[in-house]
Design brief:
alpha+beta, Alpha-Beta Plaits, 6 strands, 17% strand
Length: 200
């Protein structure tokens, strides 16, 4: 069983992150498999079902948060929608928190979970959705349907104010209209090459 994280523990390097991810996955057992996509959703009284954070294999992979959430919720493999509440979210945040010491890359799942936990009141209800395939057509599970719709949209707004785009599951052509005064800010957040095809 995975031990409880010490409050003073910090994983400050990429190598430590990988080691902890492997430790979590080993504790989950040989039946554990990486999902093709997974994320966290919640129900909003006004806006309905909202997809708060998604991760897509080969595009925006975050295996350590996946293993943490799987540990908390008992997930192992396949497609599943698992409702959970504040206590489970608090535990997931606590278990993943030492990873924030690593500045080699961002921690969008941790940031999203923390933002959700602080904004949804004392008794929030979340749904973790895992799927082993992203080409499912019209799934009966409405939570899986919402996750897949977000995956194929190819766009995600992040808790830190940035936006992540991806292909091939996203649109074939991605068009961005960016005010000239915001180009430097956009450039600072790009992680892949981008081509400027015209200026107006």
């Amino acid at each position: 069983m995975m031990r409880r994280m010490a409050m003073t523990e910090a994983w400050s390097t990429g190598a430590q992150i990988v080691a902890k991810r492997l430790e979590f996955e080993a504790a989950l057992g040989p039946e554990y498999r990486h999902a093709a996509a997974w994320g966290v959703l919640h129900e909003d009284e006004t806006d309905g079902l909202l997809v708060d954070r998604i991760n897509v294999a080969g595009v925006d992979e975050h295996h350590l948060p996946a293993a943490v959430m799987a540990t908390v919720l008992g997930y192992r493999r396949g497609s599943a929608s698992i409702p959970f509440g504040a206590a489970e979210m608090d535990r997931a945040i606590e278990m993943l928190l030492p990873a924030e010491a690593c500045t080699e890359f961002g921690h969008p799942n941790l940031w999203a979970w923390r933002a959700l936990r602080s904004s949804l009141g004392p008794e929030p209800r979340f749904i973790a959705v895992f799927t082993d395939a992203i080409d499912v057509v019209n799934p009966a599970d409405r939570y899986l349907d919402a996750l897949l719709d977000a995956v194929h949209r190819g766009r995600q707004e992040n808790a830190d104010g940035t936006t992540t785009f991806w292909r091939p599951v996203g649109p074939d052509k991605l068009e961005l209209w960016v005010p000239a005064e915001e180009l430097e800010e956009l450039d600072r957040h790009l992680v892949e090459p981008i081509e400027v095809v015209s200026k107006h």
